[in-house]
Design goal:
The protein has about 300 residues and is mainly α. The chain folds into two domains: about 200 residues, Alpha-lytic protease prodomain-like (Up-down Bundle); about 80 residues, Alpha-Beta Plaits. The chain contains eight helices and three strands.
């Protein structure tokens, strides 16, 4: 299944869980179940925006975007993080009002059943999406999966809390649980925003990918060939590496180009989704790559 198909399924599941969790809140009057339903609304908005960003990221390179549109997925992750914060504020507001004006709970058992069913749906989808997102390095899909997992843990906390209310009769536990849920999803929202910002700021490749690059270069390096100024970055599913390849000045251009092609093919075979840019230089020539600093 493609990334877009997973996100379309996420939209469908979000609609179903909204209906189930809203029904759970309606029959029980529990503000913690209301908080759970509000987070499902965030799931829906996040999945729809992620689908849009994945569609944009799949567009081919053009004159305005010669390196492609892969970074669009990072906007999806940041957007979901912002939505999570908004939902948390709404949950806290509702919980504070309930603390100030307590109301008895009704039909909690049926509400819990609906919540558990919706959580099972989210959990199964989140596991599948996270596995696929890691396999294809899709930030948008992984962010949506992590958001769904947050929803599952939120629902689990709500269910346990409401069971505690039934066992103790302490009505104030319901809004307190809702506030705890809000603080927990705030943490997840912060992590998503942080990862989105890191991607937009051209983070280097993962340590294991960089190790594979170093291994390939070590296999080609000897007394007539050396590599330096290796720099890498990530952009959604695409990976980039730039480096200098030094070789004897007496070599013909054809021979040098053939060796460079072999290195490029080996790098792309070792690191899926990698685009390598190799600059050829004589052994006795050093390139100046440091950027000049603007005067203060």
């Amino acid at each position: 299944m493609q990334v877009a198909s997973y996100l379309k399924l996420s939209v469908a599941v979000a609609l179903a869980t909204i209906a189930l969790k809203t029904g759970a809140w309606w029959v029980s009057g529990s503000v913690s179940l209301l908080s759970d339903a509000l987070e499902s609304l965030v799931n829906l908005a996040g999945a729809m925006f992620a689908l849009l960003m994945v569609t944009i990221a799949a567009r081919p390179a053009d004159d305005d975007h010669p390196y492609g549109h892969h970074k669009a997925e990072y906007f999806s992750s940041g957007f979901e993080g912002v939505l999570i914060f908004a939902a948390a504020l709404a949950i806290i507001w509702a919980a504070v009002l309930r603390l100030l004006h307590p109301q008895p709970l009704q039909e909690v058992g049926f509400g819990l059943v609906l919540s558990v069913v919706s959580s099972a749906m989210n959990g199964a989808l989140a596991y599948s999406m996270l596995k696929k997102g890691r396999a294809v390095r899709s930030m948008a899909l992984e962010a949506d999966a992590r958001h769904l997992f947050t929803d599952v843990w939120t629902s689990a906390g709500v269910v346990l809390g409401l069971l505690a209310v039934l066992a103790t009769g302490w009505q104030w536990l319901d809004p307190v649980i809702a506030i705890a849920v809000a603080l927990n999803i705030c943490r997840e929202g912060g992590l998503l925003i942080w990862r989105s910002a890191g991607g937009l700021m051209d983070e280097a490749l993962e340590p294991d990918a960089r190790a594979q690059i170093d291994q390939v270069l070590a296999e080609f390096a000897h007394n007539t060939i050396r590599f330096d100024h290796v720099a890498s970055r990530r952009a959604g599913q695409r990976r980039f590496v730039d480096l200098h390849m030094h070789m004897p000045a007496s070599w013909s251009l054809g021979r040098a180009a053939a060796v460079r092609a072999s290195v490029e093919q080996a790098l792309m075979a070792a690191v899926p989704g990698l685009r390598a840019t190799i600059q050829l230089l004589p052994l006795d020539v050093e390139a100046h790559v440091d950027e000049a600093r603007d005067p203060l």
